[in-house]
Design a protein that fits this description.
Blueprint (H helix, E strand, L loop, with lengths): L1 H11 L3 H20 L4 H5 L9 H20 L31 H22 L5 H24 L18 E4 L2 E5 L15 E5 L2 E4 L5 H8 L16 H10 L7 H9 L10 E8 L19 E8 L16 E3 L8 E2 L3 E3 L2
The chain binds N,N,N-trimethyl-histidine and fe (iii) ion.
The site of N,N,N-trimethyl-histidine (AVJ) has 7 residues, from helix 6 and strand 7.
């Protein structure tokens, strides 16, 4: 029957609005599931001086959604303007910020629901435009759930089955990459973070890169300790300084992020996506960088302070961890789920 065919067709190809709403709610279910087993005390405590209380992440996720989807996209007033300051919404003029306290766990969850019901309504009524702001908001929540897992790991509160690190398969070998040029960064069109653009040509001299990340067994031989997990799984939670020292001791170095991206996009690397991989590169904008649309996403971190990490970890959503995605952290930090892969100049 014609109407059945139409219904089937509609079910198979949801509108951009339905897709965005579906992804937003799926993301939210996972965020809430991650904290469902925690007490109010677990959610409110400062577990580490470098991490926010988990309840702050929840309130911040809601404030960010309200700012970008209700306020910026749909032109509504902020639902709770007095919270803009405490949740660090750079985009909000200081004049409209109050000095409210961060919300407690239950209040933060209620705020998440209130913001979501308003954004759902506006998306259904006004559409998603090119979808970019929705994708940014989804990616933001997904990135914060990785940050929250870092906090949970420090507190010894990760759910059963996590961290999920698997033994690496196949030989540990060097891959020789000849000199040549490649296109670095995200192509124009579609969603990407500002720091992945513009795509540009990069010339590289010949180099070699390890097919696999460094394992726990190799790391234990280096630092004289016991393997931190399965001997053949990638080492995780090492700092850039430690990674650099390991590479030195092996007569090697860290890959530049350009070398990493060339090898990864050329299909040459194994074990990508279990641990973030420290690179030798500082975090800078690509030539012609334009901050957009969230001005404080990357640009304020450019400079010699931060090192770039590539590839994504066991805690990173597939929606976020593309081969052009750039992460960054300070070189002394070990809370990030990061290991390393060796590189060297061509022999
Ligand atoms: C890209 C992971 C470094 O957590 O500081 C979250 C992502 N930006 N909220 C961070 C982000 C704003 C960012 N990292
Ligand atoms: Fe954030």
């Amino acid at each position: 029957m014609a109407c059945t065919a139409t219904a089937t067709h509609q079910a198979a190809t949801p509108s951009p609005e339905e897709q965005a709403l579906g992804a937003l709610s799926e993301t939210r279910e996972r965020t809430l599931a991650l904290v469902a087993h925690l007490t109010d005390e677990d959610l409110s405590r400062v577990h580490s001086p470098i991490m926010s209380p988990l309840a702050w992440d929840l309130g911040h996720i809601a404030a960010y959604e309200d700012l970008w989807l209700a306020h910026r996209h749909a032109g509504l007033r902020l639902l709770r303007p007095e919270l803009a300051g405490v949740y660090d919404a750079f985009e909000t003029p200081r004049a409209v910020r109050g000095d409210a306290e961060a919300l407690g766990p239950d209040e933060a969850r209620a705020y998440m629901r209130e913001v979501r019901s308003r954004t759902s309504r506006t998306i259904a009524q006004q559409g998603v435009g090119d979808g970019g702001l929705c994708e940014m908001v989804i990616g933001h929540e997904l990135q914060h759930t990785e940050t929250m897992r870092q906090t949970l790991a420090i507190a010894g509160l990760l759910p059963a089955g996590e961290p999920h690190l698997e033994p690496l398969m196949g030989p540990d070998e060097w891959i020789e990459v000849p000199a040549g040029s490649f296109e670095m960064g995200a192509p124009a069109g579609g969603f990407a973070y500002d720091n992945e653009r513009p795509r540009h040509t990069v010339e590289l001299t010949a180099f070699a890169i390890a097919r696999r990340p460094v394992t726990n067994a190799s790391w234990a031989r280096f630092d004289g300790g016991a393997p931190r997990g399965h001997p053949d799984a990638p080492v995780c939670n090492v700092s850039w300084f430690q990674a650099q020292a390991y590479a030195d001791a092996r007569g090697a170095r860290l890959p530049s992020e350009a070398e990493w991206e060339r090898a990864a996009t050329g299909g040459l690397l194994a074990g990508v996506g279990q641990v973030w991989e420290w690179t030798g590169s500082h975090f800078y904008g690509y030539p012609g960088f334009v901050a957009h649309p969230y001005r404080e996403y990357s640009e304020v971190f450019f400079g010699e302070g931060y090192r770039v990490l590539r590839g994504g970890s066991w805690a990173t959503s597939p929606r976020v961890k593309t081969l052009t995605f750039r992460n960054w952290d300070l070189p002394q930090r070990r809370q990030i789920f990061a290991g390393l892969r060796l590189a060297r100049d061509a022999s």
